[in-house]
């Protein structure tokens, strides 16, 4: 959280989600193997545990590069690996943008890029924690010379609990058949975001 923030952010993790250690100092390989063993049924083979452990290790490494407040790997079916990634991040107002607003977050989240697969869809929302904007977008990830690549879809909430900082809840996935269900999951998660006074 921003250093000046007097609040701590909370979000309820969905069932079948694994919390990624984005801030804790742990050996990621050891952590990932333990997490995979807890998620996989006892009767499943060791190759499934190894495959899921490697995917979780890479997911944690990737999430750490962005420094979110919290990150989750959504794994409803371990044999299929990670279906979606969920990250909750804080954005701090600065000299260029001294006040955090929903309009500012909408411009940030809904700006089309050269890699946009289709135009972003933005709509205002009101959450228990504050005003927000919901943006659904899709990108062509790692496009080749011919412009083809993997489509990465996202559903994001830009949330403004305070004029000095904002929150971005971002769910991303590649399995397009699950798009509507994962957006609905993001909607439910956004409703659980809350603040409490920081301890100490």
Largest sheet, described in full?
A: 7 strands, antiparallel
Strand order in the sheet with the most strands: 2-3-4-8-7-6-5
- The span between the termini is 14 Å
Helical content class: 25-40%
- Low-pLDDT parts are none
Give the overall form: globular
Summing up helix and strand content along with how strands pair, one would put the structural category as alpha+beta
Count of individual beta strands = 9
Mean pLDDT comes to 90
Strand content: 35-45%
Seen as an oligomer or otherwise, the chain set is single chain
Count of helical stretches: 4
> Taking Cα atoms only, what radius of gyration do you get, to the nearest Å?
18 Å
In N-to-C order, the SSE pattern is EEHHEEHEEEEHE
Written description of the protein model:
26% of the residues lie in helices and 36% in strands. The strands form two sheets. A seven-stranded antiparallel sheet has the order 2-3-4-8-7-6-5, with helices on both faces. The mean pLDDT is 90. The chain is α+β, with helices and mostly antiparallel strands and 200 residues long.
Task: Describe the structure using short key phrases.
200 residues; alpha+beta; 7-stranded antiparallel beta sheet; two-stranded antiparallel ribbon; 9 strands
Summarize the structure.
The protein has helices at residues 28-39, 46-64, 102-109, 179-192, and strands at residues 7-10, 17-19, 70-74, 84-92, 116-127, 130-141, 150-162, 165-173, 194-197. By secondary structure, the protein is α+β, with helices and mostly antiparallel strands. β5 (116-127) and β6 form a beta hairpin.
């Amino acid at each position: 959280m921003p250093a000046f923030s007097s609040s701590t952010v909370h979000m309820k993790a969905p069932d079948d989600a694994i919390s990624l250690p984005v801030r804790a100092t742990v050996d990621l390989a050891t952590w990932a193997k333990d997490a995979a063993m807890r998620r996989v049924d006892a009767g499943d083979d060791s190759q499934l545990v190894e495959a899921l452990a490697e995917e979780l290790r890479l997911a944690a490494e990737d999430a750490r590069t962005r420094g979110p407040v919290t990150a989750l790997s959504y794994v409803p079916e371990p044999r299929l690996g990670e279906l979606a990634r969920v990250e909750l991040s804080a954005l701090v107002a600065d000299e260029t943008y001294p006040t955090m607003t929903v309009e500012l977050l909408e411009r940030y989240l809904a700006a089309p890029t050269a890699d946009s697969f289709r135009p972003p869809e933005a709509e205002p929302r009101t959450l228990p924690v504050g005003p927000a904007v919901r943006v659904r977008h899709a990108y062509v990830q790692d496009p080749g010379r011919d412009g083809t690549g993997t489509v990465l879809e996202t559903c994001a909430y830009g949330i403004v609990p305070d004029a000095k900082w904002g929150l971005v809840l971002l769910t991303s996935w590649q399995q397009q058949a699950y798009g509507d269900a994962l957006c609905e999951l993001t909607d439910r998660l956004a409703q659980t975001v809350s603040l409490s006074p920081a301890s100490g």
